[in-house]
Known about the structure:
Elements: H1 16-51, H2 60-73, H3 75-89, H4 91-109, H5 115-118, H6 121-149, H7 157-185, H8 189-195, H9 197-201, H10 203-215, H11 221-229, H12 236-262, H13 269-275, H14 285-313, H15 315-337, H16 342-358, H17 363-370, H18 376-390, H19 395-406, H20 410-428, H21 443-447
Helix pairs in contact: 1-2, 1-4, 1-6, 1-7, 1-10, 1-13, 2-6, 2-19, 3-4, 3-6, 3-18, 4-6, 4-10, 6-7, 6-18, 7-14, 7-17, 12-18, 12-20, 14-15, 14-16, 15-16, 15-20
Amino acid sequence: MTDQPGFTPTGTIASAADRRRVVFATVVGTTVEWYDFFIYATAVGLVFGQLFFSALGTNTVILGFATVGISFLFRPLGAFLAGHFGDKLGRKRVLMWTLILMGAATALIGVLPTAEVIGIGAPIMLVLLRILQGISAGGEWGGAVLMAVEHAPKKRRGVFGASPQIGVPLGLLLASGVMAIMTAIAPGDQFLAWGWRIPFLLSVVLILIGYYVRRNVEESPVFAELAARKEKAKMPIVQLFRKHALLVVIAALVFAGNNAIGYMTTGGYIQGYATNPEGPIGLERGPVLWAVTGSAVTWLLTTLFAGWISDRIGRRNTYIAGWILQLAGVFLLFPLVNTANVGLLFLGLAILTVGLGFTYGPQAALYTELFPASIRFSGVSISYAIGAIAGGAFAPTIAAAIVDATGSTEMVTWYLAGMTVIGLIATLLLHDRSGIPLGPDHEAEQSVSPIYGLAKA
């Protein structure tokens, strides 16, 4: 039992005001983190190929999207570090450090000299800073999820867990919106000269806000109870892979099925494809960015709704409905985008985000309920990081390479459909554990494998 003020003997936050503060801090913090992460991907689709990767004298579009994916390769490092220290030192402390690391890397990108000034040094420094963003993103999500879900009432974990999830569409909305505003303030060559830098430098202000908000919330009650009992795992990552390796893989594939499709916009692919003056669409930057911003709103709303409905029909059922909706969105996306009509482009993205929301909103609660308390940060973070590599890491690069090789988006659609089916199969392999007790008193129950056909992990 913990003696911290504001906690009951079971480790549950007693005050509704405290719960609201945690949710608010989670939304603000994750929005700032993902704004920083997505502003890079948006810039890759719009300007980085010309300003930085031209020094390498190759296909700058594919190379630029490859750097989006490279950062994912370092997410497991961030997840391993954050998981280890999050299970030993606490969720809150790790979240403060991931926020600072992400903000510093993003702001430094905003002052980097271009290839015209320093040649090959420009893309090298850009990639190094992107790697730091990847490390931060790998550690951020797991901590934010656990802060939200471990504070939640048992019957509201889905909607509480949706708070870090809506930080993703909010981050996309903010990143696309700020970029769209800058295309109006600094059109044409001015955007290439200095306009793209402002959204990166804005990160400094956002990080200060996020840091202040996160600093004023309580530690997760589950971790507080583990610490009070001195029951923290000594080597949480070793225990995770010794007892739950298969569960990590299956959980990762659930996320991969969502992430590959989500990175068509968050990875900057649709923005780049639709605005490429040498491509089949050739739309202006501003309208496309506003269409992506609008689709971020529909993604946000469906993500929040999916978290809420998962508290009523279960995580598994919500996911199954989501995979069906996502598959429909995948087959509609490019036929609508290829009309070269901004309104229909927005419609295609909006339809896609319905399925994305349903396969993203319940994820925080699903992951939290899969792993035992003592190794939960490690399990959640590492599953997420591996899923991000298998799904979104190189989805924009793969899509760009397919179109470059075939001259058509048809095979991109089948690639995205295949990833959706993988996510569905992985979901069907898992029992629904909605409402399982999360505290350390129930570690034995939590350690029973949720995989169909396995008695214990």
